[in-house]
Amino acid sequence: MSNQLRVGVLTISDTASTDPVSDTSGPSLCRLLEAESRYTVQITAIVPDDFKAIQKTVTAWCDDLDLHLVLTTGGTGFGVRDCTPEAVLPLLERQTPGITHMIFSKSVQITPYAALSRAVSGIRGQTLILTFPGSPKAVKENFEVVAKLLPHAIDLVRGGTGKKTHEKMQGAPRPSGLADNEAATSSSSHDHGHGHGHGHGGHTCFHHSDRETKTDAASLGLDTPVPRRLRKSPYPLIPMDQALAIVMGKVTPLPSVEKPVNESLIGAVLDEDVVAVEAVPGYRAAILDGYAVIDTDGPGQYPVTSASIAAASEGSPRKILPGQIARITTGGALPEGATAVVMVEDTQLVKTSEDGAQEEIVEILAKVRPGEAIREIGSDVQVGQTVLKKGQVISAVGGEIGVLASIGVHKVAVRQRPTVGFLSTGNEVVNHDNGQALKMGQIRDSNRPTLIAATKAAGFDYLDLGIAPDSPDDLEAAIRNGLEKCDIVVTTGGVSMGEMDLLKPILEQKLGATIHFGRIMMKPGKPTTFATVPQANSKQSKLMFALPGNPVSATVTYHLFVLPALRKLAGYEKYMWPSVQAEITHDVRLDERPEYQRAIVSVTAEGGIQAHSTDKNQMSSRMVTMLGVNSLMVLPGKTSERPSVKAGQKIECLLIGKLV
Ligand SMILES: Nc1nc2c(c(=O)[nH]1)N[C@H]1C(S)=C(S)[C@@H](COP(=O)(O)OP(=O)(O)OC[C@H]3O[C@@H](n4cnc5c(N)ncnc54)[C@H](O)[C@@H]3O)O[C@H]1N2
Ligand code: MOO
Ligand SMILES: [Mg+2]
């Protein structure tokens, strides 16, 4: 990893900042970068065309994250809001007009409109910054112009001599043991420290110049001494909406699989339209116990010719002629010629056989219409009728399985169900049922049982990955094991600012993961982290949620992010939680961060919907605030105009449990 060039991709757009899904340039730039092994996209963000927001992000990425390369897309044009060049120029310590001109000259050959870009480029500290226009096409063209040049440029920016590149240009053999992507950084100070045995070998040194101590993600890092760690998180605090859009943008439904029609289908999403193979009912059947008649015969006394009880029989049922009736049970096959069924209650016995065992003559008392009390062939479902649609969820209520079972379909194509693995982390965390008294500083693992229970209730498969101590090697091994076996790995703990909070650096430095966000403006769950981790034997990256360790933070963020992601993976079109507007029964003081308060939503005697928080003290370590919870109250962040929500006001409540 340490030889990879760490890149930040910043989308600058008013539209994309409110609707992240509309951002196509940022993701296309990420794909271009990820297609080349030498780059790793360490961070992405979207900001509006806002001078300060642009400067803040670019500065943090250069100065705190010390990225090799920052690429921005958008805001370089003539539009009134376009201000990327104005925001970026003052941040550049040295401009790189050669790169800017090279891009311009190539781009105007493709389209004269390229002249309307005011892009700039340059160097800040040890970071190269390029500003691209906002269209995916322009982004691709621009990137391709400079792609070959960038590693060499970065090498020089980082104090390298460029010797390797020059040797390469002259066709000279490269020193043995140097991989392609090493050429870019091998002579730079950046090469020290990480990725080569993480501090156990001769590569680690901490005696660099001031600038060097900030290289790599060392300041977040695995082998950086505590005093040198960053004192502020380098991960931008992004809004909840954006975080959700990022997660859902990365989740694509799993492939299809054939499954038998039985309870194993509960919760599955159909991946095909299902067509009835058989008609329901497959024969003309009586709806009532009584007598099959010919309706035109009308009331009167009739000989009983035969009996048709609901049972299988070969061939067609017997026939009745005008003036005859036949005894029939509910579900029995109608005799040929019968046009209606008269219920037994509307008849009376006239004569029996001599031994009294058989009916001989019965009087029909009621007049019936043709077709009365008969289920015609296919009157429920006809052969060839599309009964269930692709995308439909097979519910636990039973309706879908019941219908599938009735129409002669034995197997259906459904989306594969994801498996999620749970790993608790922390030296202080012990199995909740270890049977031993806690030692000082120990805490029982409540996160795994909680999340496993919620997963089981939601019908997903899971793997219990146990507890990993706060050691880089143990964590790496446990996560790798989980990623191998599961579609999503969820860890809890170790994502904030403590020296034992190792998840983020492990993800980036050891697993080659891209962290898409590492902090969210929400309460609880601020340090919630989401990453995609490339897999050696598959093009498809795996998803990884590193949730905060605090039990309530872990539980709430699991419900808000992971369960919807699991539903989307399983093919659900509606994967977010449903919500209701409920009347809050008490005042609530708002927090700076938008908050998800644990609440109980109930239906009042008058049919209204009301909600109350489980407890005033909603600290994220207090699992007791989760007792009885069926809802998360979505409270907005505090403003000077709205410091609190008053009793009686309506508040959106996400229904994560059953309404009471
Ligand atoms: N300087 C700062 N400190 C903290 C910040 C911050 O922004 N700056 N954020 C706080 C917030 S908000 C949260 S939430 C927590 C998140 O902590 P971590 O994800 O790093 O988790 P840990 O430090 O490992 O543990 C936190 C807490 O939870 C207990 N824990 C951990 N795992 C379990 C488990 N499986 N079962 C039960 N309890 C568990 C652990 O013992 C700690 O008490 O960080 C704040 N700090
Ligand atoms: O965001 Mo933390 O989850 O407040 O406790
Ligand atoms: Mg911590």
UniProtKB/TrEMBL annotation:
It catalyses: molybdopterin + ATP + H(+) = adenylyl-molybdopterin + diphosphate; adenylyl-molybdopterin + molybdate = Mo-molybdopterin + AMP + H(+). Belongs to the MoeA family. Pfam families: MoCF_biosynth, MoeA_N. This is MoaB/Mog domain-containing protein. Catalyzes two steps in the biosynthesis of the molybdenum cofactor. In the first step, molybdopterin is adenylated. Subsequently, molybdate is inserted into adenylated molybdopterin and AMP is released. Keywords: Magnesium, Metal-binding, Molybdenum, Molybdenum cofactor biosynthesis, Transferase. SMART domains: MoCF_biosynth (SM00852). One of its GO terms (molecular function) is molybdopterin molybdotransferase activity. The keyword Magnesium applies. Residues 160-212 are annotated as: Disordered. GO terms for biological process: Mo-molybdopterin cofactor biosynthetic process. InterPro entries: MoaB/Mog-like_dom_sf, MoaB/Mog_dom, MoCF_biosynth_CS, MoeA-like, MoeA_C_domain_IV_sf, MoeA_linker/N, MoeA_linker/N_sf. Pathway: Cofactor biosynthesis; molybdopterin biosynthesis.
